[in-house]
């Protein structure tokens, strides 16, 4: 075939771009660097499989029909092919198909646990979570570092005399760490098994080969040295099918001699009624371990996967040489990046591929020129916008992460109790990263993938100045800028379009924010999670408009007409919707939901017309929910905004309870820090009111124009979804400096005081055009370069109304209006 690639020589890349476009059309415009997660499936694999499926009928095995016989014989052949792929002799090994590597591990655990005495367990520190969890089933368990494994290899069994000798033990370790690519010797399995044999405790060995086999041949040709159990997932090697396997050395089959549960297909005879008896199948281990109907079509797909992999990449040896070459290039590229002051940009946790045997995985973190760690969430946002597929976070490798980052168990518990969870935005805790960035390569990676990633890190994360930034001026300018309220917006339904308050209208300000702002949201019918424009950009095309005369919120859909859906719908403003003529039987039902990761109790509308409308427009089963002011408990939320380090105001000291221990100073970059006064909010992300200023927006647009030639139109204020847009007064003589709002402590709008609560952290949702719902790269890409402090990106300012200031009568009904004077105060 023409598409076969000689992928070993460095210059192979010539012409490979066409191969990529042809075989991986779904990756157009993006760079895939998450092979440790899974590998993309080539088009010819899907074509080959589709052909196999449409030319043949595969039935349920174990009957005499032609379709059933075909499945049976093909599965037998494929089982053998899998063994050959790993150089394993079918007389010495058996393959048990399982859903994935994890399911393969569980088969081993179930068998050992069923023994009369259970089992003891030791696992290497670099193990994947799926191996760590085995400890919960073991009588005793130990997590071993390299030194402890070495000691075991040298003859000192970690299971001393305190551990029952009759009880078997299991030793498990990864062939390659899924976190940093480190590889571990396959000889461990043999030596440790032998150590067990010479002592009197039986020791089984389990090799987690899931990461290793993606980019390396696994050779099981010598049954004496092979691990007893090897687990892997095929999707990681081929991209498809979603299937895994447990490969068992026949010499270790006795581990499965205490079966309990039996399912369809695993028995030769079952007696029920008066006697309870069954005869398990005896010839092959896989017959006893594959309960129920096999994933027939997935197994059949393996045939195509093996064919196409060979056709495209030759052999695993080729893949290994190819990925090793790229890995070295990536390692050297990232390692060479330096800030202007010569400090390294990347802190790399993976071993140097020139010095040790390492898989093509690079784990690292980024620090800015002032040694501040960058937030992983932030790196991921920008990488996603730029089309890179990478993984960040704890990557399912708790022991590896803890040792790479020097996290002690007490720190991890402390982080957990201060709200850290896998996958949250606050990934720098107490000045330390809690996870890593992982870039991993595979058979289809190219030189340009590697180079563009290194260029990306260089472009966005290198500080070229050699000095620390000069602190910005903190004194108020000699003449106050003359400012006014330029426009006012509310967003009645969270993440949907804006309603612009008409000029001349005085809009009520409440402690929770502007009246009617973010009082409703759309929640997923299944998970209860509040929907966001990030996943459903079309929400921008849903435009709510309050109509106080008729007592309703009219929501219009301004996108392309959809069949069977009205263009608009009315929602009663009243908290009791059954007062509304068309919703006589309507009720609001309390339902638990999640907003920005926080559990809340919202009132959902049980009105099919309403929910069908929103579900139809967005193409997701959702319902409307309301979160009115004045709730208690989980029907109430608090502001999370706080001053950021780049702002010059000093944050208010935390309130200490009399007699309590002084709490340790909270880390300066923790986002969980609460401001001393707990302000209530409705469904806005962080604070009652969000403000932006036009001089800052102008400065941003100038930057965008200056840096990217292809930005045709200016970014509009709407993308920031602010409530109050502040601009220069008409004929202003004193101008406002861009980003002066960072240093304001409060502002007076008309007769009312507002406290500035801190800069607003941004995500790539600002890249959604609020008119068209189309996504682009800007303004987030430029903000990442010009408005990043401590690794986070900011634009606009959180604020809240200060009650109790101003005159009595106005206090009772504070309002804001377009054109009112804005007077900033500096602290
Ligand atoms: C991916 C992976 C696993 C888990 O594989 P599943 O397919 O999710 O069961 C286990 N160990 C390692 C080293 C892996 O890379």
UniProtKB/TrEMBL annotation:
Residues 630-677 are annotated as: Disordered. Residues 663-825 form the MOSC domain. It catalyses: Mo-molybdopterin + L-cysteine + AH2 = thio-Mo-molybdopterin + L-alanine + A + H2O. Residues 651-668 have a biased composition (Pro residues). It is an enzyme of class 2 (transferase). Residues 635-645 have a biased composition (Basic residues). The keyword Plastid does not apply. This is Molybdenum cofactor sulfurase. It comes from Cladorrhinum samala.
């Amino acid at each position: 075939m023409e598409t076969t690639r000689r992928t070993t020589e460095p210059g192979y890349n010539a012409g490979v771009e066409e191969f990529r476009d042809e075989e991986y059309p779904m990756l157009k415009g993006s760079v895939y660097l998450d092979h440790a997660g899974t590998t993309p499936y080539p088009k010819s694999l899907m074509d080959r499989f589709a052909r196999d499926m449409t030319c043949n009928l595969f039935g349920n095995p174990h009957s005499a029909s032609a379709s059933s016989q075909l499945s049976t014989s093909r599965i037998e052949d494929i089982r053998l092919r899998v063994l050959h792929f790993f150089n394993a002799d079918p007389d010495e090994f058996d393959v048990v198909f399982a859903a994935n590597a994890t399911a393969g591990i569980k088969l081993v655990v179930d068998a050992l646990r069923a023994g009369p005495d259970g089992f003891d367990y030791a696992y290497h520190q670099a193990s994947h979570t799926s191996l760590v969890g085995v400890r919960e089933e073991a009588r005793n368990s130990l997590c071993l570092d390299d030194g402890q494994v070495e000691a075991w290899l040298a003859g000192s069994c970690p299971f001393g005399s305190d551990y029952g000798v009759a009880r078997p033990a299991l030793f498990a370790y990864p062939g390659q760490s899924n976190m940093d690519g480190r590889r571990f010797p396959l000889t461990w399995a043999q030596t440790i098994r032998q150590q067990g044999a010479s002592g009197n405790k039986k020791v089984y060995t389990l090799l987690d080969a899931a990461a290793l086999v993606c980019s390396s041949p696994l050779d099981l040709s010598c049954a004496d040295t092979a691990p007893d159990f090897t687990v892997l997932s095929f999707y990681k090697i081929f991209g498809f099918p979603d299937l895994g396997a447990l490969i068992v050395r026949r010499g270790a089959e006795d581990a499965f001699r205490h079966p309990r549960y039996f399912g369809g297909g695993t028995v030769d005879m079952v007696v029920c009624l008066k006697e309870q008896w069954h005869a398990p199948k005896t010839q092959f281990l896989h017959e006893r371990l594959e309960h129920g109907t096999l994933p027939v079509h997935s197994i059949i797909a393996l045939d195509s996967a093996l064919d196409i992999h060979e056709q495209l990449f030759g052999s695993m040896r080729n893949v290994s040489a190819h990925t090793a070459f790229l890995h070295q290039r990536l390692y050297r590229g990232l390692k060479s990046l330096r800030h202007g002051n010569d400090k390294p940009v990347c802190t790399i946790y993976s071993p140097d591929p020139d010095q040790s045997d390492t898989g093509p995985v690079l784990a690292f973190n980024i620090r800015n020129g002032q040694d501040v760690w960058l937030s992983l969430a932030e790196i991921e946002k920008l990488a996603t916008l730029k089309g890179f597929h990478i993984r960040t976070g704890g990557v399912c490798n708790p022991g590896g992460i803890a040792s790479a980052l020097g996290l002690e168990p007490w720190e991890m518990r402390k982080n957990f109790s201060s709200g850290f969870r896998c996958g949250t935005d606050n990934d720098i805790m107490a000045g330390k990263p809690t996870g890593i960035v992982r870039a991993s390569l595979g058979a289809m990676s190219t030189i340009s993938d590697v180079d563009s990633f290194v260029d990306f890190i260089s472009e966005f994360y290198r500080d070229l100045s050699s000095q620390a930034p000069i602190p910005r001026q903190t004194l108020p300018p000699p003449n106050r800028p003359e400012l006014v309220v330029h426009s006012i917006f509310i967003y009645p339904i969270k993440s949907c379009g804006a309603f612009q308050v008409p000029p001349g209208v005085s809009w009520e300000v409440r402690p929770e924010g502007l009246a009617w702002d973010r009082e409703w949201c759309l929640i997923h019918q299944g998970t209860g999670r509040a929907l966001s424009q990030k996943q459903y950009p079309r929400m921008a095309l849903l435009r709510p408009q309050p109509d106080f005369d008729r007592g309703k919120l009219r929501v219009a859909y301004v996108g392309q007409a959809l069949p069977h859906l009205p263009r608009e719908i009315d929602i009663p403003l009243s908290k009791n919707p059954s007062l509304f003529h068309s919703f006589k039987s309507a009720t609001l039902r309390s339902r638990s939901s999640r907003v920005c990761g926080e559990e809340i109790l919202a009132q959902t509308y049980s009105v099919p017309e309403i929910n069908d409308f929103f579900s139809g427009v967005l193409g997701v089963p959702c319902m409307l929910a309301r979160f009115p002011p004045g709730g208690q408990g989980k029907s109430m939320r608090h502001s999370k905004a706080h001053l950021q380090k780049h702002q010059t105001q000093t944050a208010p000291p935390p309130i200490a309870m009399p007699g309590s221990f002084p709490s340790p100073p909270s880390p300066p970059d923790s986002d969980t820090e609460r401001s001393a006064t707990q302000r209530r909010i409705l469904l806005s992300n962080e604070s009652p009111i969000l403000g932006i200023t036009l001089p800052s927006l102008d400065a941003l647009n100038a930057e965008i124009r200056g840096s990217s030639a292809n930005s045709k139109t200016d970014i509009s204020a709407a993308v920031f979804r602010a409530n109050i847009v502040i601009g220069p007064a008409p004929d202003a003589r004193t101008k406002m400096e861009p980003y002066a709002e960072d240093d304001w402590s409060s502002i007076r709008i008309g007769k009312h005081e507002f406290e500035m609560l801190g800069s607003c952290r941004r995500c790539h949702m600002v890249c959604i055009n609020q008119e068209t719902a189309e996504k682009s790269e800007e303004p987030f890409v430029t903000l990442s370069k010009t408005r990043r402090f401590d690794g986070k990106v900011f634009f606009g300012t959180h604020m809240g109304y200060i009650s109790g200031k101003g005159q009595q009568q106005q206090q009772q009904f504070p309002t804001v209006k377009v054109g009112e004077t804005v007077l900033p105060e500096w602290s």
